[in-house]
Amino acid sequence: MSIGEYFDFVLTRTEDMYNIVQYEGHGSFWLVFFIGIVFGGIIQYTRVDKFEKIAGFAMGKDTIIPKMLFLAIGITSIALYFEIKMGYASYHVKPMILSGLIIGGIIFGIGMAIMGKCPGTGPISIAEGRVDVAVGAVGGIFAGWLFTKYYDSIFKPLMGDSYGKETLVTISGDSTTLWVLAYGIALIVIAIIIPKMELFDEGDLERLEKEERPDIIAQREHEEFEIVK
Amino acid sequence: MTRRLSWWMGGILMSLLLLFTFSVFGADRPIGASTYVPYYAGILFGMDPKDYTYLQEIEKPGAWEGVMLLGSLTGGFITSVFITKTFRISVIPAGWKAYKNNSVKSRLLWSFVSGFLLIIGARLAGGCTSGHFMSGMSQTAISSMIFGGVVLVTLLVTGKFFYKKTKES
């Protein structure tokens, strides 16, 4: 491929991307872009993209990630169940590819603890100027290339067979509503009872006014926290 | 002005965003954030979808997440500059300095390796924190509960052995 051909290829593919999103019935380009803005905004505003939050959780020094995550899943699972029941949404469940889920989960967990990011929060850290995360993205792009190239020969066989797309709804028989409610409430309760602990980065806090600093607020509320510089 | 959103406010807002995205008024699909990586890799490395079955499989979700990524970069940037005031160029996270080491080379090398692992792992499992953990477990999917359990345990075990117990002085 010459440079000119490569340039054309990239342009055509980018145009394809726009057309798929604009016309394939899953929102329009601007709607999906807007969902991204809100997603990035929530993650940045709660600071859950920070190394100190994700790697801090792995070290047992910060619990904001599990608290926020379990609360979000708990609320959504109950509301989504009724949203789908009323016909305003539908299920999009991922298959139970057992070896893929277990091998993938282990590799992913190791990567997440070391990087202190996941694929959703990483870009938001890049957007706030984290050079190390940009280097991680290069590693990720390289992984994406390798996965695509050897999908048929290595990775697809490694993922194993699918055992269906089961959910609590499909396996709980007559008492589905009860099971979903119990599941959602249990997650919300877990989110609330996990003790709140935070690991703060002084580099982030020093730019704030005294009354805006989350560590001052945590101190006032007698919460557990630690500051690193 | 509130410079930080509490975990419960964040959880509620994230839940509303998920419900909107799932609904027919939104995008009628879940939120996901790892399929865009092989999708963009395909574009950057000049890979023609005709030659790669994986690119054919992810053509639609990849494009969707590719656009969402552009939005989250924008949203993250605007929020970090105007609200949280956290925009600055930095190489080593403070937590890494305190509990691992002070070496730029070490952090960048580990970043590359862990970025690589994140994507291989996510693609093998068919999702990441967004697709499996948030969207999948919200649909009470068994596959996502298995993934979530494995990731949670591995994350905590890795954190225990990879980082130092006590702070560097």
Structural class computed from helices and strand pairing of chain A: mainly alpha
Helical/strand content category of chain B: mainly alpha
Shape of chain B: globular
Strand content of chain A: under 5%
Helical fraction of chain A: 55-70%
Q: Order of helices and strands of chain B, N to C?
A: HHHHHHHH
Radius of gyration based on Cα positions of chain A: 21 Å
How many domains, in number, for the residues of chain A?
A: 1
Distance between the termini of chain B: 34 Å
Outline:
The complex is a heterodimer of chains A (229) and B (169). Chain A has helices spanning 3-23, 29-46, 51-58, 64-85, 98-115, 122-127, 131-149, 151-159, 168-171, 176-193, 202-205, 214-220; strands at 197-201, 224-228.
Descriptive overview:
The complex is a heterodimer of chains A (229) and B (169). The mean pLDDT of chain A is 96. Chain A contains twelve helices and two strands; from the N terminus they run ααααααααααβααβ. In chain A, helix 3 (51-58) crosses helix 5, helix 4 (64-85) packs antiparallel against helix 10 and helix 7 crosses helix 8 (151-159). Chain A is mainly α and 229 residues long. Chain A has a two-stranded parallel ribbon with strand order 1-2. Chain B is built from eight helices and no strands. The two termini of chain B are 34 Å apart. The chains are: A mainly alpha (229), B mainly alpha (169). At the A-B interface, helix 1, helix 2, helix 3, helix 4 and helix 5 of A face helix 1, helix 2, helix 3, helix 4 and helix 5 of B.
